[in-house]
Target: Ribokinase
Amino acid sequence: MIIVVGSINLDLIANVDRLPAPGETVRGSGFTTAPGGKGANQALAAARAGAKVRMVGAVGKDNFATEALALLRDGKIDLSGVGETFASTGTALIMVADDGENVIAVVPGANGSVVTGDLSKAFMKKGDVVLLQQEIPLQTVDAALDAAREAGAVTVLNTAPFRAEAAAFLGKADHVVANETEFDLYGEALSLSGRDRPARMRDYAGKTGRTIVVTLGGDGVLAATPADLLMVPALNITPVDTVGAGDTFCGYFAAGLSSGLPLDQALARAAAAGSLACLKPGAQPAIPLAKEVDAALQKPAS
Model:
């Protein structure tokens, strides 16, 4: 079982020719809504990878909640751990440019009410994989890491969005997944040594005894364990929309670990899934099915 403790949003997406500069207004070419939130995105990705998934989080008592949960229900995810609050359902305001780049503003809403007491709904046990992000209160994330360790579960912590105070508990996670910017910022906060990023990753893995995974966009994924450094390439694609690619990676990575894949294979499968997620607009609607990822992995490299 994969247990996701995290955020649930409704994404409000505007398509623009290019992203605006500060103070500038640009004309949009389209508008859509889609279920989102890093927690929900990763839960759906894990489910589409073939894993059994339980979601712990919160939504508001509003019209956005139904749409925010729609694809999770369709994916047969256990939503018994999702509560309702009087705060609004979380929203993400997203602008996507023609080149696939995006900017995002997140309004937490109900996600801010996911507290440590809600972890009783997770029913963690030995052998589970607990998947976490940083769009809910950090004290809940910290407590979830402790609860998972006590239960004998494996933890995966995605450091998005970057929050400096999380540096205090990163070392509790069995696997940390960060993008380049996030890792570099945490590297400074943790005073990691090394002349380049791979060296600092090795330093982190050596000091904590854990695994650090850094996603590099089109350049693939780099991972450091206390014993090894692994590089996995991304698929060669032309991106349409990069929203949700990182979440897809995390969900598929957790599913790979849950199914017993070796680290290198779990990373390769997750990297392929993240690449495929860039070929369609939106976050959850773009998450590929397992059969699509399998097909992509079987194609010879071009």
User: Anything to note?
Assistant: The mean pLDDT is 94. Helices lie at 38-48, 63-74, 138-151, 180-189, 197-208, 245-258, 263-276, 290-298.
